[in-house]
Amino acid sequence: MPANRSLSLETRVLDLPVAGVPRFGPESARKLALALTEVSPGKDSSSVTVTDLLSYLPLRYEDRSSMAQISELSDGREASLDLTVRVAGAYPVRNRRSFKQRLYIFKIGATDQRRTGPQVIVWWFISGARAQQIIQYNTKRFVAGTRFIAFGKWEWDKHGTYSLRLNRPDELELITGADDEEGAETDQTLVAIHVGRRVPIYRKLGEFRSKRLREIVHEVLARLSDKAFEETLPLDLLARRKLLARAEALRKVHFPTDETPLTDYDQ
After folding, report:
1. Which one of 139, 155, 170, 191 has the largest count of C-beta atoms within 10 Å of its C-beta?
2. What is the pTM of this model?
3. Is the CB of residue 212 less than 8 Å from the CB of residue 180?
Protein backbone atom coordinates (compact mmCIF):
# COMPACT_ATOMS: atom_id res chain seq x y z
CA MET A 1 0.00 0.00 0.00
CA PRO A 2 1.64 3.27 -1.09
CA ALA A 3 2.19 5.89 1.59
CA ASN A 4 -0.72 8.31 2.13
CA ARG A 5 -3.00 6.49 -0.31
CA SER A 6 -6.58 7.56 0.29
CA LEU A 7 -8.62 5.24 2.43
CA SER A 8 -11.46 3.07 1.24
CA LEU A 9 -13.89 0.81 3.07
CA GLU A 10 -11.79 -2.13 1.91
CA THR A 11 -8.54 -0.80 3.38
CA ARG A 12 -7.21 -3.38 5.81
CA VAL A 13 -6.91 -2.29 9.44
CA LEU A 14 -3.32 -3.53 9.30
CA ASP A 15 -2.65 -0.91 6.59
CA LEU A 16 -4.02 2.09 8.49
CA PRO A 17 -0.58 3.19 9.82
CA VAL A 18 0.63 3.74 6.26
CA ALA A 19 -2.40 5.95 5.68
CA GLY A 20 -1.13 8.29 8.39
CA VAL A 21 -3.67 7.80 11.19
CA PRO A 22 -2.13 9.78 14.12
CA ARG A 23 -0.45 7.80 16.92
CA PHE A 24 -1.42 4.57 15.21
CA GLY A 25 1.59 2.45 14.39
CA PRO A 26 1.93 -1.16 13.19
CA GLU A 27 1.68 -2.60 16.71
CA SER A 28 -1.55 -0.68 17.43
CA ALA A 29 -2.92 -1.79 14.06
CA ARG A 30 -2.11 -5.41 14.86
CA LYS A 31 -3.83 -5.20 18.24
CA LEU A 32 -6.91 -3.50 16.81
CA ALA A 33 -7.17 -5.96 13.93
CA LEU A 34 -6.94 -8.86 16.36
CA ALA A 35 -9.60 -7.32 18.62
CA LEU A 36 -11.94 -6.75 15.67
CA THR A 37 -11.84 -10.44 14.78
CA GLU A 38 -13.82 -11.07 17.98
CA VAL A 39 -16.74 -9.03 16.60
CA SER A 40 -16.30 -9.79 12.87
CA PRO A 41 -17.47 -13.35 12.18
CA GLY A 42 -15.46 -15.19 9.55
CA LYS A 43 -12.61 -12.66 9.57
CA ASP A 44 -9.04 -12.95 10.78
CA SER A 45 -6.61 -10.19 11.71
CA SER A 46 -5.23 -10.00 8.18
CA SER A 47 -8.63 -9.52 6.57
CA VAL A 48 -10.56 -7.12 8.82
CA THR A 49 -11.11 -3.80 7.06
CA VAL A 50 -12.33 -0.26 7.61
CA THR A 51 -15.86 -1.59 7.05
CA ASP A 52 -15.45 -3.88 10.06
CA LEU A 53 -14.12 -0.99 12.15
CA LEU A 54 -17.06 1.28 11.24
CA SER A 55 -19.47 -1.58 11.96
CA TYR A 56 -18.37 -1.48 15.61
CA LEU A 57 -21.11 0.90 16.71
CA PRO A 58 -21.27 3.03 19.87
CA LEU A 59 -22.89 1.61 22.98
CA ARG A 60 -24.42 4.99 23.81
CA TYR A 61 -23.81 8.73 23.52
CA GLU A 62 -23.04 11.52 25.95
CA ASP A 63 -24.00 15.11 25.31
CA ARG A 64 -20.84 16.91 26.40
CA SER A 65 -21.79 20.14 24.68
CA SER A 66 -22.93 21.44 28.06
CA MET A 67 -21.20 19.67 30.92
CA ALA A 68 -22.77 19.78 34.35
CA GLN A 69 -21.01 21.73 37.07
CA ILE A 70 -20.56 20.67 40.67
CA SER A 71 -22.87 23.45 41.80
CA GLU A 72 -25.65 21.95 39.65
CA LEU A 73 -25.49 18.41 41.09
CA SER A 74 -28.30 16.88 43.10
CA ASP A 75 -28.54 13.52 44.82
CA GLY A 76 -29.09 10.79 42.23
CA ARG A 77 -28.49 12.99 39.20
CA GLU A 78 -26.83 11.31 36.21
CA ALA A 79 -24.37 13.72 34.64
CA SER A 80 -21.00 14.21 32.97
CA LEU A 81 -18.44 16.40 34.74
CA ASP A 82 -15.21 17.80 33.34
CA LEU A 83 -12.90 17.44 36.32
CA THR A 84 -9.32 18.06 37.38
CA VAL A 85 -7.58 15.78 39.87
CA ARG A 86 -6.58 17.35 43.17
CA VAL A 87 -5.52 14.17 44.96
CA ALA A 88 -5.72 10.44 44.22
CA GLY A 89 -4.66 7.23 45.89
CA ALA A 90 -5.69 3.87 47.33
CA TYR A 91 -6.15 2.53 50.82
CA PRO A 92 -6.98 -0.96 52.15
CA VAL A 93 -10.39 -1.86 53.57
CA ARG A 94 -11.65 -4.98 55.27
CA ASN A 95 -12.73 -7.69 52.84
CA ARG A 96 -15.77 -9.40 54.32
CA ARG A 97 -15.78 -12.07 51.60
CA SER A 98 -12.22 -13.25 52.09
CA PHE A 99 -9.70 -12.64 54.84
CA LYS A 100 -6.90 -13.81 52.52
CA GLN A 101 -7.56 -11.37 49.68
CA ARG A 102 -6.82 -7.70 50.27
CA LEU A 103 -9.44 -5.22 49.16
CA TYR A 104 -8.65 -1.59 48.34
CA ILE A 105 -10.56 1.53 47.46
CA PHE A 106 -9.04 3.87 44.90
CA LYS A 107 -10.33 7.38 45.44
CA ILE A 108 -9.97 10.58 43.41
CA GLY A 109 -10.76 14.02 44.80
CA ALA A 110 -11.46 16.48 42.00
CA THR A 111 -12.92 19.87 41.14
CA ASP A 112 -14.60 21.11 38.00
CA GLN A 113 -12.88 23.56 35.68
CA ARG A 114 -14.56 26.65 37.20
CA ARG A 115 -14.40 25.34 40.77
CA THR A 116 -18.11 25.92 41.24
CA GLY A 117 -18.30 23.86 44.41
CA PRO A 118 -16.37 21.70 46.88
CA GLN A 119 -14.43 18.79 45.46
CA VAL A 120 -16.28 15.63 44.48
CA ILE A 121 -15.13 12.05 44.98
CA VAL A 122 -14.82 9.36 42.32
CA TRP A 123 -14.00 5.88 43.64
CA TRP A 124 -13.96 2.15 42.95
CA PHE A 125 -12.84 -1.15 44.49
CA ILE A 126 -9.61 -2.96 43.57
CA SER A 127 -8.79 -6.54 44.55
CA GLY A 128 -7.05 -9.65 43.27
CA ALA A 129 -3.50 -10.81 42.72
CA ARG A 130 -2.66 -7.79 40.56
CA ALA A 131 -4.11 -5.22 42.95
CA GLN A 132 -0.80 -3.48 43.62
CA GLN A 133 0.01 -3.23 39.91
CA ILE A 134 -3.44 -1.79 39.21
CA ILE A 135 -3.02 0.73 42.02
CA GLN A 136 0.37 1.83 40.69
CA TYR A 137 -1.02 2.15 37.17
CA ASN A 138 -3.94 4.31 38.26
CA THR A 139 -1.76 6.40 40.56
CA LYS A 140 0.34 7.32 37.51
CA ARG A 141 -2.75 8.05 35.44
CA PHE A 142 -4.50 10.28 37.96
CA VAL A 143 -1.75 12.62 39.12
CA ALA A 144 -2.69 16.04 40.43
CA GLY A 145 -3.69 18.36 37.59
CA THR A 146 -4.91 15.62 35.25
CA ARG A 147 -8.15 16.52 33.51
CA PHE A 148 -10.74 13.81 33.00
CA ILE A 149 -14.42 13.18 32.23
CA ALA A 150 -16.57 11.32 34.77
CA PHE A 151 -20.08 10.19 33.90
CA GLY A 152 -22.61 8.45 36.12
CA LYS A 153 -25.08 8.83 38.96
CA TRP A 154 -23.80 11.22 41.62
CA GLU A 155 -24.84 10.63 45.21
CA TRP A 156 -24.68 12.83 48.29
CA ASP A 157 -22.63 10.73 50.72
CA LYS A 158 -22.19 10.57 54.49
CA HIS A 159 -19.09 12.77 54.25
CA GLY A 160 -21.12 15.68 52.91
CA THR A 161 -19.92 15.64 49.32
CA TYR A 162 -21.02 14.25 45.99
CA SER A 163 -19.46 10.92 45.09
CA LEU A 164 -19.52 8.64 42.08
CA ARG A 165 -18.90 4.93 42.53
CA LEU A 166 -17.62 3.18 39.41
CA ASN A 167 -17.89 -0.48 38.58
CA ARG A 168 -15.00 -0.12 36.14
CA PRO A 169 -12.40 2.69 36.06
CA ASP A 170 -12.39 2.34 32.25
CA GLU A 171 -15.55 4.45 32.45
CA LEU A 172 -13.31 7.47 33.13
CA GLU A 173 -11.71 9.26 30.20
CA LEU A 174 -8.55 11.30 30.51
CA ILE A 175 -8.47 14.53 28.55
CA THR A 176 -4.89 15.30 29.55
CA GLY A 177 -2.16 12.95 30.70
CA ALA A 178 -1.39 9.35 29.77
CA ASP A 179 -4.47 7.37 28.82
CA ASP A 180 -3.40 4.16 27.12
CA GLU A 181 -1.65 0.95 28.06
CA GLU A 182 1.69 2.25 26.79
CA GLY A 183 1.51 5.52 28.72
CA ALA A 184 1.33 7.77 25.65
CA GLU A 185 0.33 11.34 26.38
CA THR A 186 -3.03 12.60 25.16
CA ASP A 187 -2.72 14.47 21.87
CA GLN A 188 -4.05 17.95 22.64
CA THR A 189 -5.10 18.48 19.01
CA LEU A 190 -7.69 15.72 19.56
CA VAL A 191 -9.25 17.08 22.76
CA ALA A 192 -12.09 18.74 20.81
CA ILE A 193 -13.29 15.29 19.75
CA HIS A 194 -14.05 14.39 23.36
CA VAL A 195 -15.63 17.54 24.82
CA GLY A 196 -17.91 20.35 23.68
CA ARG A 197 -20.04 18.03 21.52
CA ARG A 198 -22.06 14.84 21.48
CA VAL A 199 -19.62 11.96 21.75
CA PRO A 200 -19.97 8.22 21.10
CA ILE A 201 -19.20 5.83 23.95
CA TYR A 202 -17.81 2.49 22.78
CA ARG A 203 -17.37 -0.76 24.67
CA LYS A 204 -13.71 -1.45 25.28
CA LEU A 205 -12.33 -3.40 22.32
CA GLY A 206 -9.24 -5.41 23.22
CA GLU A 207 -6.84 -2.89 24.77
CA PHE A 208 -8.60 0.08 23.17
CA ARG A 209 -10.72 2.22 25.46
CA SER A 210 -13.64 4.29 24.23
CA LYS A 211 -11.62 7.49 23.90
CA ARG A 212 -8.94 5.96 21.70
CA LEU A 213 -11.52 4.18 19.52
CA ARG A 214 -13.29 7.51 19.11
CA GLU A 215 -10.08 9.14 17.91
CA ILE A 216 -9.35 6.36 15.43
CA VAL A 217 -12.89 6.24 14.01
CA HIS A 218 -13.01 10.05 13.78
CA GLU A 219 -9.77 10.15 11.82
CA VAL A 220 -10.80 7.31 9.51
CA LEU A 221 -14.14 8.97 8.74
CA ALA A 222 -12.39 12.27 8.07
CA ARG A 223 -10.17 10.58 5.49
CA LEU A 224 -13.02 8.88 3.66
CA SER A 225 -14.81 10.78 0.91
CA ASP A 226 -18.55 10.25 0.50
CA LYS A 227 -17.79 8.49 -2.80
CA ALA A 228 -16.01 5.77 -0.86
CA PHE A 229 -19.35 4.62 0.60
CA GLU A 230 -21.04 2.46 -1.99
CA GLU A 231 -24.80 2.75 -1.60
CA THR A 232 -26.42 -0.58 -0.68
CA LEU A 233 -30.07 0.48 -0.98
CA PRO A 234 -31.96 1.52 -4.15
CA LEU A 235 -32.03 5.28 -4.59
CA ASP A 236 -35.81 5.33 -5.02
CA LEU A 237 -36.18 3.54 -1.67
CA LEU A 238 -33.94 6.13 0.01
CA ALA A 239 -36.05 8.93 -1.43
CA ARG A 240 -39.41 7.30 -0.68
CA ARG A 241 -38.53 6.46 2.92
CA LYS A 242 -36.49 9.62 3.45
CA LEU A 243 -33.52 7.53 4.53
CA LEU A 244 -30.00 8.86 4.94
CA ALA A 245 -27.40 7.94 2.34
CA ARG A 246 -24.92 5.36 3.58
CA ALA A 247 -22.09 7.86 4.01
CA GLU A 248 -24.20 10.27 6.07
CA ALA A 249 -25.74 7.47 8.10
CA LEU A 250 -22.37 6.03 9.13
CA ARG A 251 -20.96 9.45 9.94
CA LYS A 252 -23.94 10.36 12.12
CA VAL A 253 -24.22 7.02 13.88
CA HIS A 254 -20.64 7.50 15.11
CA PHE A 255 -20.72 11.29 15.56
CA PRO A 256 -24.25 12.70 15.88
CA THR A 257 -24.55 16.35 14.97
CA ASP A 258 -26.29 18.86 17.22
CA GLU A 259 -29.53 18.53 15.29
CA THR A 260 -29.49 14.72 15.37
CA PRO A 261 -31.97 13.41 17.99
CA LEU A 262 -30.00 11.11 20.28
CA THR A 263 -33.12 9.02 20.87
CA ASP A 264 -32.91 7.87 17.27
CA TYR A 265 -29.65 6.09 18.08
CA ASP A 266 -29.27 5.72 21.83
CA GLN A 267 -31.53 2.73 22.52
Report:
1. 155
2. 0.72
3. yes
